[in-house]
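Lab manual, section 2.4: Encoding a predicted structure.

Procedure: take the sequence of the chain (395 residues), apply the prediction step described in section 2.3, and record the output as structure tokens. A sample record is shown.
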Amino acid sequence: MDIKRTADQHITNTYARYPLALVKGQGCTVWDDQGRAYVDFFAGLAVCNLGHAHPQVVETLAEQARTLWHVSNLFYTRPQAELAAWLTAHSFADRVFFGNSGAEANEAAIKLSRKYFKDTGAPERYRVVSMKQSFHGRTMATLSATGQEKIRKGFDPILEGFDYVAFDDIEDLSRAIGPSTCAVMLEPIQGEGGVVVPHKEYLAQVRQLCDEKGCLLIFDEVQTGIGRTGKLFAYEHCGVAPDILTLAKALANGLPIGAMLTTEKVASAFVPGTHASTFGGTPLVTAVALKVLQVLTEEGIIDAVVEKGDYLRRKLEQLKTKHAMIQEIRGKGLLVGIVLDAPAPPIVHACRERGYLINSVQEKILRLVPPLIISRKEIDGLIECLDEVLGQSQR
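Recorded output:
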């Protein structure tokens, strides 16, 4: 079978796919159907933090598949209970809701915020303030919360009740929060927005402002969570916690899972019948997610992210002095953006031709989100590749 041709004929055309059919992965390397290897600095869009086919994850998946795959959430299961207990023990939260994706986790966060104020006698508080250039998902609610017109284009009318302010601008946020605001929703670092890191005090200022104005704070850590920035959760860098946190992507290293974490006080607004998910938190995915978290934390993988990220950015800063095309290096941990003065897709293509998978956002920004197990040797290989590509692009 011609994989690419068959897919193009039968799958909806919602992705501008790269001309590769990937058939195998191991560690930080993937192979296409022609047998060619690629070093993966994409990681399924910040999903495969333990790389591909990690042996402990594979073993856990196989064992759980032989034991119990799926039952209704009307029943208790050990893997789900253990994962919820682990997440609350390692975060600010008391309660967890499980879904299948980041969009579902964010949808739950939006619903919970509105329901919380309905239950506490303030039904007029239903609006959510989010950030320009944010990305929160593709459902109608999360699309409406996303502060990028190109993402919302073609789906008007979006849902009512969302306001947008400039990211990293506390004065703009302060002006936007009013008597009808129930929550402020933001990513600690904007990934799809261009790997934008706010100034050091910003998130603490947002927390203080939400407390003063009496609204909830939602951190969308779908991309930044699970060790990507060098902490289990990115909010840990700023010394304050949200009222609601959303996770997905790397939580089960590629199996579909989303999670919304919150406090006992806020969670009280969700009672039987108010929210649900048929496939949310199955025994299969929660068993794998727990193993992923244990490996990342107990084997020191997250602890090494800061050093690896610093090494990668130092190497990129050296390239910046050599190649005028590079305007800025952004990021934290192993979430890194390279701002160019020219379109990024041709650089992505040229790197792919040389055996390295990266991607681009916001037209002129290269994004690097490798598995957290990436080695210095693999980082050095990418740097050599970029050096060659950028050099040829400027001739």
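Check your result against the sample. The domain at 78-298 is CATH 3.40.640.10 (Aspartate Aminotransferase; domain 2).
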